Input
Amino acid sequence: MSRLKPIRPAGLQYNHIIGTGGVGSGIFFSIQDNHTLGRNESRMAALEPYNDFCKQHIILHYIAVLLKHGTTDTFELYPIAKVGNDTTGKQLIQQMQQAGMNTAAVDICKERSTLFSVCFQYPDGSGGNITSENSASSRVSPIDIARFFEQYQFDGKTAVVLAVPEVPVETRIALLKAGKRNQSLAVASLLSSEANAFEQQDGFHLTDILAVNLCLSGCFIWGFEKVYHALRPLSVGRLTFFYYAIAIGILWAFPPSMPVQHQYASFSKPYIFHLLFYRMR
Output
């Protein structure tokens, strides 16, 4: 496994990341022809042996693997999340701990099961997923964000805050606001269906780097014109393409061609799913 090391003599600009987003598991189907699955259609597909995980877990796993044990500095990862009181949830917490994450803010929710996703992919590389909205992840609230920062004793200028889907938009906004108060680098991603709520809660202005999954959201199905007008006042500059989990894991530094051996993959052809990164300032 390749390890990343600082290119600056002074070391890493950021030494910890605080994230919120989905933590869960899933299964993966390969559909055998390119005909789009119909609304009332049943179809056979191959259930693949891939391990699928949810957004925050995937992103932080790559950061942990590529940074935490590859530097002379200490790099810490703090996921804020909830899993169900089930075998899957407990296994996920253990896996996160083994990767080097601090799971003190990953709570067990007794009322809901762990987040679960069903992914599918066509032979041409397109596809999608269906993810449970009534899971433990949906119970992560702004209160959980506030509780974390009550104990926060680090220099916020050395932090990245990461707000990604599969927890409520309000919770992600709370994390971005906390990041701004602490002068941290704020990174966010959102689904096309969440764009209006994100804009209404001033999410774009709270974000330093916005990651948009081009293929999954169809260049923001929300409407490219609306995205343009939302971002235009923010002096949008550089934009570039990266692989999904590698790219978000800290920030302009990882070459997109870096080979990574992994078992955490949302799709068997991860290069199909790219992010458009807007550098907000």
Observations:
- The chain has nine helices and 13 strands.
- The mean pLDDT is 76.
- The chain has one domain: 16-32+46-279.
- The radius of gyration is 18 Å.
